Amino acid sequence: MLTLLPYFAKKSKTMKLKKRIFISITLIAAISFVGFTAYYNLQRDKLLLDIIGQSLSQIHYQKNKFDDDFSKGVFDNFMSSLDRNKNIFLQEDYESFVKYESVIDEEMKEQTLNFFDEVNSKYEERFDGLKEYFDIILEQAFDYTLDEMIENDDEKSNYPVTEEARKEKWRKILKYETMRQVYSKMEAQKKAKAKNDSTVLKSFELIEREVREKLQKEYNDWFHRVEKYERKDRYSIYLNTLTAYFDPHTNYYSPKDKANFDISMSGQLEGIGATLQESDGYVKVVSIVPGGPAWKHGDLKAGDLILEVAQGEEESVNIIDMRLDDAVQLIRGKKGTIANLTIRKPDGDEMNILIVRDKVVLEETYARSAILNNPNSNEKVGYLYLPKFYANFQEANGRRSAKDIKKELIKLNDEGVSSLVFDLRNNTGGSLNDVVEMFGYFISTGPVVQVKDNQGKIRLHEDKDNEILFKKPLVVLINEGSASASEIFAAAVQDYGRGIILGSPSSFGKGTVQRILDFDHLVNSSFKQYKPLGALKITIQKFYRITGASTQLKGVSSDVVLADSYMYLPVGEREQEHAMPWDEIENTEFSIWTCENMNKAIKNSKKRIAKDTLYTLLDNNAMRLKNMRDETLFSLKYTDYEEVMNKRNEEYKQYKTLNTTKSSLKMNALAKDLKRLEGDSTKTKIWTQWVKSLQNDYYLDEAFRVAIDLN
Question: Domain count of the chain?
Fold first, then answer.
């Protein structure tokens, strides 16, 4: 994702939008509000619908109309979102909804929710009816001698015509899942027997029964979780089908989702510092964040169950069977407040603990660096890892990726590295301001990216600082998960000839800019009873390379391609529904960076890769995975399924080395980092473990060689 600071560039635009929204919903204000929850929810839903509709029509980059095409797109998306596999609704349900296929645009204008309400009501009815026969299906063994098939491609599937047909569809789903797990367990015990002859083998019948019992529990848990979903949860899904028609990156965030978005962008939150999950109706502690309040307190451990939560001395709230996100909201809280927790230890002992909430820093979301060494030489190459172009939008002096990268580059310079490998793999983007500033560390002055708004106006973002913080050769690692701001950086490196792009055939292909509209700031104080309303991440601009070409759909192509498991699978922006098109604008003037060894380094790398059996194996494995993905029709006869899976397992054996091949490089933490962490054994251990984990990344070997060739 790519965002801009601040939310609105001009205050006047905010006031105009606020005024339009206020005028359009004065009728809501004129109604005297009563205390009925249903009425309150309906008015809030209409308010959200109005704000989103106006935001899309007035601010979004594309001038899409609310017409029949829009209606059809929303209709299809909502049906797919609720029932992608077509195993909840019946065919008659779908046919009863079709009358709305071309009128959703009218409902938007009239602020009516007939389509949503009818679909939501029927969904609840059909879902409730599912649980009745799940236990019946799983209570007895399946017949694995029958010649029957299951189609796992939802696009080739149809809605069941009758309730009995729906039950039969679920029977096949459950039979397939049981068979899949039985096969896996049968193979596992064969391997165990081969290693230890004294291993006692379980019969097929016993394993099959154990798998069904396990599935029964898992599906009961699933029902338990889904039953906690409320109308507002599915309404959020509906609102997102409206926004997704404009493009896949325009999304509505409920207040909880907005809070989680802020955490992901800033890398910090206020709370106790524990990762939680739902388990059998309980809130279970999965891990403790090192350095956080719970870690400092010491009594809360992974595996503990949180039973009750109180705010300081207030009355406790029982959170057993509570939705996880609701429980998390109770446990999180402002810095300095007290979380009063009743917990149960794995041995059954219960105790009460008081944890003072504080800022929790998620270090793994921040930039980090290390030193890459070849054991056969004294050459030192810097390694810089950036998981996201983060920025704390909530604090003026909050942590930002550009500032952190600057610190890392200074440390790497002090270490005397000869070149740099900048890892942007799976970096989904973030702050536009930060990527522009960051690229400026590698050039003197010049343009970085062009941005066009919905009025056709083009703005050039450029580096105006003459200082070059890092002058040495640069290699940028990308893959299919590198998107948005990552693509701006990689494209600028490539266009300037500042370095070599190494990795997947191309990056994700997201060439759009989003801005966050906080709805609480848009509505008049007359509507304060409906707050918090959430926010809209809306596409307002497209960005273009300084050559004029867009990265939309096409992404950034690597100078040297390194085969990976996903290279033949349908990933990237081009696979997204309603993705915006590729286009180009005029180029801008810039000065090419002089690097005499660029072509030589690329040529040498391609030669090495062509001779490297590991990369040939990777390419073949990627094609194997594609072929497996294309196979969607499976036999439910166990002997047939076993034959197919045995063949796959034999094919897989030749690719097992891909999981065990390690880098030949030696990785070291920077001296300043180790000194900074002195006295903190936990953080030192985490840091050194991260550096050691790089040992499993054999892509770094070729990146290292390219970096050396650039010198």
Answer: 3
Catalytic site residue from 45, 495, 559, 697: 495
Please give the Cα distance from 319 to 304 (Å, whole number). 14
- Check if the beta carbon of residue 26 is closer than 8 Å to that of residue 111: no
Q: Decide if pLDDT at 289 tops 60.
A: yes
Instruction: Tell me whether residue 510 is one of the annotated catalytic residues.
Output: yes
Q: Looking at the structure, do residues 273 and 229 belong to the same domain, yes or no?
A: no
Active site residue 484: yes
Active site residue 663: no
Assigned domain for 45 exists: no
Which structural domain range is residue 561 located in? Answer: 363-596
What number of other Cβ atoms are within 10 A of residue 513's Cβ? 26
Is the domain of 399 the same as that of 437? yes
Mind listing the pLDDT tens digit for each residue in 224-278?
Answer: 888 888 899 999 999 999 999 999 999 999 998 988 888 888 888 889 999 898 8
Strands 317-318 and 2-3: unpaired
pTM: 0.88
- The length of the chain, given as a count of residues: 711
User: Which candidate in 71, 236, 266, 484 is catalytic?
Assistant: 484
Question: Which candidate, 420, 386, 616, places its Cα nearest to that of 500?
Answer: 420
Specify the higher pLDDT residue, 131 or 138. Answer: 138
In a domain, 481, yes or no: yes
Which residue in the list 172, 510, 537, 542 is annotated as catalytic? 510
**Does residue 342 register a pLDDT over 70?**
yes
User: Token pair of 400, please?
Assistant: 């930002």
